[in-house]
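Help: read this over?
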Amino acid sequence: MGGSNNFSYRASATVISQEGIIINSGFDNFIGRLQATQRALNDKLVFNVNLNAAFQRNEFNNGDRVNEALSRRPTDPVYTDETQTAYFRDTDIFNYLNPFARAQEIIDGDETNNIFGSLRADYEIIEGLTASFFGSWRRFDRLYGQYQSPLTTIQDAVQDNGIATRATDRTQERLMDLILNYKKTFGEHSLDFTFVYEWQKADFEGFRAVGRGFVNDFLTFNALQSADLSLIRGGDISSFADDRTVISFLGRINYSFKDRYLFTVSVRRDGSSVFGENNRWGNFPAASFAWRITNEAFMANQNIFDELKLRVGYGVTGNQQGLGNQNSLRLVDPAGTAFFGGVEIPNFAITQNSNPNLQWERREMYNVGLDFGLLKGRLSGTFDFYYGITSELLFGYVVPQPPFPFDRYQANVGEATNTGVELSLNYLLLDKEDFTLTLGGNLTSNRTEVTTLSGEIDGIDFTTDFVRWGNGGTTGVASQNDGISYLIEGQPIGTFFLFKHVGVDENGVQIVDDLDGDGAVEDGDRSDDRYIAGQALPKVTWAFTPSLRYKNFDMNLVLRGAHGHKVYNARRAILSAMGTFGQGNVLAEAPGIGINNITYATDFWLEDAGFVRLENLTFGYNFNTANLGVLKALRLSFTANNLFVITGYKGIDPELRFDGGAGGGIDFGVYPRTINFAFGLSATFQ
């Protein structure tokens, strides 16, 4: 840090090096930052510059190694003999996995460069009126390489005598904001007006090439020209280039009277190139009101509340997340070759329907909240109740062929509601000169429910109360019965709609309850023998965040939990099928269960996913720097993350990523979370 009266700067460098829990995996990150501020024209003009540069190096050896190790027969050797010169591979088993060979021999990683720069200029035109400009530019370059040697035991690599992949990706993002802000206080009135014009554009491009068949493994992916061109497959060479642009206009007015009554009104108009040509623009208004009750005259003589503020709000936001840059367009891809007129010509097939009416997903939110402080500031907290309606849901629907040329359609159909309450509290339990103890925490109860799934798609009525959400395709379940998570009208998002397991017969076949009592178990998603077995989203989440200080020592922890939801343990189901015994691993409990093959997605694999996790624990010591010369502050800290999890869930981790595109609450196998310990030393100089 340094500078003068009108100029200041700060520079920093950071190095992060992490070794993965899987051999030959890791992450290195080198970061440099520079921030500078220049003032001019008697402080009427202020420039802020920010420059960041990061270089990252990754060795992936991804999480599939974990699932491969779990699925492999534990009695198989790693090598064929004691010389450890060749990895064991059972040629009688198709696509046999030797996870150690893969972890040792696969070269898989990338290098990325991320450069970011921004400039902000603020100029006070007259008192209270400020014009601002903000511009930023980011460039992200990635170089990826992978080589699968025949030694990896990967079937394709053995068959093709090595597979090399090289890929490059580049993203360039540009952003510009023009801001006009006016602030004025007159008497007991205060006014703050802001207008913003924003333009942002992102360009994407990349290239990928795959080579197969190499004389040796010496050059890995660095000599694709030495590959056997006769082994090339469709899709081995590809490239892409696309972009997306968003333009926004925002007008906002903040008004307060006597610092008691606070009003905010805003209107946004956003346009995005990812939507159909008929609906690229959306209007999103918002309004809120806050009342500082403790500033009223009738509260002057009370001794209960230090702060009491009532808040109400309404707002509409638009969502474009999850949409690709060309999701509104009809797309085609190569589809082999065809003979026409005695000549072989390339063939193409439609892989995406066009939708010129694709538009913003809209979310209306209503909120009522209360902020309070009691006991001379010792107890404070907030309470919020919210209700939201999400309409024009963005979703990929299955549509009939014909009239549609492709069986999937990206459209705005359906509606969902979101209702919840949030409570947060902080209480200063002890407040002594050398000792303080503060107890804090929050509690949230939330329900997101599908209201309707019906609507019109391209002039065709789409009427349904039920949509499969993701699938259980890797659970070993027969295809017509592998549906697990669904969107069902009147039910929470991610509802489990499953068959009921009642036992196993003498032949190792699952017995499924005939819930509708018609004498047979019907197959399929809409079977009357399925039932609603639970939900993937937690009903309640909470966190407990106490902090303690004793003289120069301090301690903070974060303990959090989630309850009222379930996880479908697909990995446990796969490892419980005795039909694979002898070819792959099974759980110790599998013989006792006695199921040969998983033919139905049943509630036998559905487990309570409630948990309590010690997320973070930090101890710190602040040294007395009065006699340390140039040192203004010196702190030593120790931090531990993810120390323990209390749960009844039988999988690796009950906390899964909730991915709307692939369904939710299905555990196909996760990369284990690690326990991290870190020591830190921070110093501030005079």
